[in-house]
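Final report, Chapter 2: Outcomes

The project's central promise was a pipeline that accepts a single protein chain and returns its three-dimensional structure in a standardized token representation, suitable for archiving and comparison. That pipeline is now operational. To close this chapter, we reproduce one record exactly as it appears in the project archive, with the input sequence first and the structure output second.
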Amino acid sequence: MSVDTAFTAAAPLMGRLSLIHDADTAPGWWRSAVIYQVYPRSFRDFSGDGIGDLAGITAELPQLAELDVDAVWLSPFYKSPQRDAGYDVSDYCDVDPIFGTLGDFDVMVAEANRLGLRVIVDLVPNHCSDQHVAFQAALAAPAGSPERDMYIFRDGTGPEGHEPPNNWLSHFGGPAWTRVTGPDGQPDQWYLHLFDSSQPDFNWDNPAVHAEFERVLRFWLDRGVSGFRVDVAHALV
């Protein structure tokens, strides 16, 4: 299945959904589906450490199936510093250890399939964590480099670029721009973050960003995911 041909913008269903659907399922199944959202951190703690986990979700899937839901939608469970409830992703292709492992995820999907449930996961493509390997590479690279072009870096205004590129504000308050220190230790460019300063925005005008997220989508589709809820989808168009 081509990821490009499988992308569908969904109508509002418990929030704005954008889904990738499997070629073997009826296109548009989500339009009439009952979708149960799960926030992994607080759903069920199976390990006893005080934090909900994937094993806890797996244990509760039979009960969700009894409710006649069609799909389970998981809020972020990816590796993350957890500055913004997991919406600051540092690795899109791994599970944060507080929730378990990729093996735990595979067991959960297999159990969901056995019960006739589909699994939808949150995708966060507008921004990532400042701990993501790509952003760390951008910080170490000079202005104008391919590494920086993965994000939205701009020169500042005013004397010696001390002011932000424009007057945009973060949704969390304050400027939507943060200045970085260059590889030479001197004040350098500014990067855009529409949310927290620890969440740099990706540059979706860069084909390399498209390719990276196609890789991420394929990774989870190959693990049995039926769709994605795209966070901040409106910012991508």
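Archive annotation: Residues 133-192 form a domain with the Oligo-1,6-glucosidase; domain 2 fold (CATH 3.90.400.10).
This record, like all others produced under the grant, will remain available to the consortium after the project formally closes.
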